């Protein structure tokens, strides 16, 4: 029986693939007002602005490549029973080869009916425009979770945190709930690391390893594969 490993990722794991984070220097929320581009109210007020915000990010995702952190995480699957729980809406974990990726905040490469949330579609075009409609005739929106909307798969994510023996939390400021609260669901006995370029106080028994995702994550992964502690 392979040991259970859980990877919990935020935008920092995709930063070295050239995708912008939110709260760092140059982050998206330094340039855009969250309520205007990532909330139901913003969508109602100015859907064109919201669509162009996500079109720009989708183009960036489509031209980005998975980095060494994504690849190391995918490599873990040869040795461990791995689940990735991500706050990210890009598909870099999947493109690196991770087979179980739970997107708490949705997926930018999917669209959804603005009337019926159960109607979702894989996007085959890089942009979503006004007039792109679902099969019931309503405007399509990005299939992402906006502020004020319900985060997805939380119960499933909590279960994975609770039964993981090893956990890496990488590239998240842990400022957005309920996602950030998942860390306290981890077993006391599990081996837990938190990786970030910015110093942070490691919560709930996690060991903080400061550095970039592409340096520190492969280091942890190689140690685990060799049966060593990082
Ligand atoms: N390697 C490791 N960590 C990094 C790197 C890197 N190359 N670059 C940035 N980081 C770290 C930053 O230090 C920061 O702690 O990644 C974190 C990014 O934090 P945020 O920008 O807040 O992104 P995230 O935590 O993913 O945001 C959570 O907020 O706006 C919502 O829905 C959005 O999913 C997002 C959620």
TrEMBL record:
Major enzyme class: transferase
Residues covered by the Deacetylase sirtuin-type domain: 1-230
Keyword NAD among UniProt keywords: yes
Domain of life: Bacteria
UniProt cross-references to InterPro entries, sorted A to Z: DHS-like_NAD/FAD-binding_dom, NAD-dep_sirtuin_deacylases, Sirtuin, Sirtuin_cat_small_dom_sf, Ssirtuin_cat_dom
Source organism of this protein record: Herbaspirillum hiltneri N3
Keywords (A to Z) from UniProt: NAD, Transferase
One Pfam entry name: SIR2
Protein name: protein acetyllysine N-acetyltransferase
């Amino acid at each position: 029986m392979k040991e259970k490993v859980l990877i919990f990722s935020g935008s920092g794991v995709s930063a070295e693939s050239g995708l912008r984070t939110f709260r760092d220097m140059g982050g998206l929320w330094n340039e855009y007002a969250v309520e205007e581009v990532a909330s139901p109210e913003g969508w109602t007020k100015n859907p064109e602005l919201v669509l162009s915000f996500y079109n720009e990010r989708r183009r960036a995702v489509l031209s980005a490549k998975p980095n060494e952190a994504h690849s190391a995480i995918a490599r873990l699957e040869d040795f461990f029973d791995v689940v990735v729980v991500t706050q990210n809406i890009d598909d870099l974990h999947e493109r690196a080869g991770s087979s179980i990726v739970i997107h708490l905040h949705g997926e930018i490469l999917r669209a959804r009916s603005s009337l019926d949330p159960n109607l979702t579609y894989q996007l085959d075009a890089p942009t979503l425009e006004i007039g792109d409609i679902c099969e019931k005739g309503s405007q399509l929106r990005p299939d992402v979770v906006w502020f004020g909307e319900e985060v997805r798969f939380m119960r499933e994510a909590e279960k994975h945190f609770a039964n993981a023996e090893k956990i890496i939390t990488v590239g998240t400021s842990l400022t957005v709930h309920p996602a950030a609260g998942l860390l306290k669901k981890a077993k006391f006995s599990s081996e837990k690391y938190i990786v970030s370029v910015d110093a942070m106080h490691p919560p709930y028994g996690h060991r903080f390893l400061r550095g970039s995702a592409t340096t520190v994550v492969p280091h942890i992964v190689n140690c685990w594969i060799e049966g060593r502690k990082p």
